[in-house]
Amino acid sequence: MERKKPLEHTSLLVLSLLKGQDLYGYQMITELERRSDHTFHMKEGTLYPVLKKLENGGLVTAYEADANGRTRKYYHITRSGLRQLATEQAEWEKYAHGINSVLSFQPG
How far does Cα 47 stand from its chain's mean position? Predict the structure, then answer.
């Protein structure tokens, strides 16, 4: 049985999810799975501390709104969050390029 790997770069993933629309926690979990073709599964115990850290850092804000008769806590990316996302995305792309360069190297 394949063992699940720890999910890294959670703030990058969460900020990316919030770039297009405000979401509540469970929506983020399901959207991450959908967008990653079920490669990533973030548990609530991972997500909510990340959201709290992002909120405390001014990268996201939270508000409550009704959805289908239930009050949900939605998260919204701030301008600072968009700047942070751009920075983290650029760092990730540089890192991924380096990895891909090593993996695709053909000697000779």
Answer: 9
